[in-house]
Fold this sequence. Notes:
Blueprint: E1 13-16, H1 25-34, E2 39-41, E3 45-46, H2 47-51, H3 55-60, E4 71-76, H4 80-92, E5 97-102, H5 107-110, H6 122-134, E6 140-147, H7 153-166, E7 170-177, H8 189-197, E8 202-205, H9 211-217, E9 223-226, H10 236-245, H11 254-271, H12 274-289, H13 295-302, H14 308-319
Helix pairs in contact: 1-11, 4-6, 6-7, 9-10, 11-12, 11-14, 12-13, 13-14
Amino acid sequence: MSDFSWKTHPRPIVALAPMAGYTDSSYRELVKEVCPRVICFTEFTNIDGLLHGNKATIRQVIFNPEKERPIVAQLFGKDPEKFKAAAAFLTEHGVDAVDINMGCPAKKIVSSDHGSALLKDPSLAERIVEATVAGTNLPVSVKMRIGTSCYDEGQFFDFAHRMERAGAQLITVHGRTSKQMYGGSADWEPMHRLKQELSIPVIGNGDICSGADAVEKIGPLDGVMVGRGSFGNPWVFQDIFAALEGTSWEPPTLEEKLTRIERHIELACNFKDEQWGMLEMRKHYSWYIKGLRDASKVRQQLVLTENREEALKLLRDFLSSAVPV
């Protein structure tokens, strides 16, 4: 049985956000190799697919127990009893904690009354948390946004307090409304105020792309969660810990970057298979080489190859002489 606890986990908490299509086992393992102190969340996972035994859905919560702990499985849906059953399923399969998505702004998610749509139905959200807690002895947490169409202070604080009373042991707040999606700037002030009111840990999410960002935004919070800021830059977690703890850190050389990309390709191909792994890597290449001269030309070549050795040669040739724009 896992002994993981949000209450006793060392501060600062630094977490990899749950991102559909990105934070699979290979990506999480890569991040943990670069910075073992990171807490990784799975891709956000549909409770219906999980309970129906859908192979693609179950793959989203498969993890390497030797490399990825502590691992937090994130669920989305709207049926409290299904959350209870899904939490029990995940407990049996050895995860360390369960997180409930109440923040995804994608239209197809919101239109099904999942994700951030739950912010409009706090009573249902409470029942979901209560049912999830009843289905597991693991810590249960909630990821939410500061609002739906706009930030309503009363609604935001009331919702978070309800989640705590229902049994959530941690709340992660993305500092945008669901209407904003991922545009504009994240507002961290509501999270800072919320931390003063709750007795459980609160971590913030939104626009963290460096250690300097974390220092600027963390305030009284227990930690930060990084999403898109980690794309092509798993070293950002080293940077964040160093900045928050006042220690030195040096960014990777191009040679170190190449070694890590090669490792990512290896993990992706091992986790799925070579053909699928190479297809999955296409979304990562542009992030790894972003900011380097002629990156667009190389990216066009990389996304056309399904051959592992060909991709590695393209990367080695490019990074051996690459220069910043």
